[in-house]
Amino acid sequence: MRLSTKGRYSVTAMLDLAIHDKAGSVTLADISQCQGISLSYLEQLFAKLRKKNLVKGVRGPGGGYRLARPADQISIAEIISAVDENVDVTRCAGEGNCQEGEQCLTHELWSDLSERLYNFLDDITLAQFVDRPGIPELSMQRDKMIGRFLLARKQAEALNRTRPARSQGRVA
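Now predict its structure.
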């Protein structure tokens, strides 16, 4: 099984939105520049993500896109499915007609693997991924590299508000 760019780029773009969710909306141009994804390709992907109620557009100054639901309610599998991708590893797309119209000897093996893979991705939310060690810091570093200073500053402020003060409990 090989996940196409549709699935990978959609997850990457949604992760970018989730990371910057507290800072406000994000433009597709920012995501394009920061993540190295074509703007026209992002527009196509976001049309599908919007139809599936995963993102919402924000108009006016400071407009762009935001998550349509909280990050802890959006799974990686849902994102991949929204852009018409699947995590099926069978040769027959799950139809059972793998070998001259009949089910092949290993169909059940690949079908079970597909189901486990889908369940694995369905059990991971954007919020869980954002909370992984190093992800917010890596994002801020990339933001600064491409000149996303305002978003990086807002994200740092939001990050600092959610983390407990490290100096508490230390003796000077």
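The CA atoms of residues 23 and 154 lie 5 Å apart.
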